[in-house]
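Re-run with default settings, no changes from the original entry. Doing this only to confirm the output is reproducible before filing.
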Amino acid sequence: KQWYQRRVRADRMKSIATLFTFIKEDLEEIPLEKDQRFGNKAFRVLGERIVEKSHGWISNVLPDDIKEAVVELKAYFDESFGSYIRVDYGTGHEINFLAFCCCLYKIGFFSPSDYI
């Protein structure tokens, strides 16, 4: 099979999906600001929470033997959702999430043996 026809082992993907669950929980707690012309400034609050909490979130999904990579991974993960200062969450930021996933592969979080 070609690489894109393979499926990654479910437990590794589920652990990455939990990162989005954490973000969703915080998102639901943040009230949107009214009457914003460009972007909602509540996005900055979400960004602050992601930056504050992502080290722990990522560390929790990594096996012990690769936990030291959390510092590098965190940078890509934090920038995956936009620029919190400019309130910019348009296109372009998702490449950081792709880099986050590529780093996970390179450090062995995902490996060829995970494919079924």
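The mean pLDDT is 83. The first helix runs from residue 10 to 29.
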